[in-house]
Amino acid sequence: MQPRFCIDLALRSSPRLPLPAAASEALKMLHDGFQQRPGHYALALPNAPERALSRLRVFAGSVLELESLAFRARHLPARISDVIEVPEHYDGPWMRYHRFRIPSRKSDVSGPWLTLGQPTDARALNKLEGMPRERRMRQALAARLPYFELQSASTRQAFRLIVEPIAAEGPITADPEPDGFGLSVTTRPFALPSASRLSGWA
């Protein structure tokens, strides 16, 4: 997948659908489209960190792939830009949009404070803060990382997809392999053009 073109989805909120919910709904739809062509789409959050969920940007290697995705997204509460061509010799900033994983509850040692409420003493609190899951959740909260509330198609369980924007010196790899949500993962890192001047609004 080469990030040669992209489209922007400027999300609209409403009393019925606040911005976080609108962003989650949009990503669900995009994920369905990504699944049709695995590894062909990459996701960026160009307005991060202040208004991370207000605009989703999708990169692809061809205009046709993005036009097809834009057609699928036509009923979303969003304004969709024209297809944007990334300059051939792009020399602007790059950003890696990394999937920030939270360990499962099984990674934490069980204890009564996990089921009965807050720890009752400093020793218990220190133990809780040192657990892998709790520690990662606190890191995400402290960094104010953007997230999407989603649901697994196979188990129907709700989960939170957290995205960590990380500045990069360049594309990292010449052949990006996004995951099912269009994100960079630890084993397959890549970066995307992040210049705000990329614009395809009609």
From TrEMBL:
Protein's UniProt name: Uncharacterized protein
Originating organism: Thiorhodovibrio winogradskyi
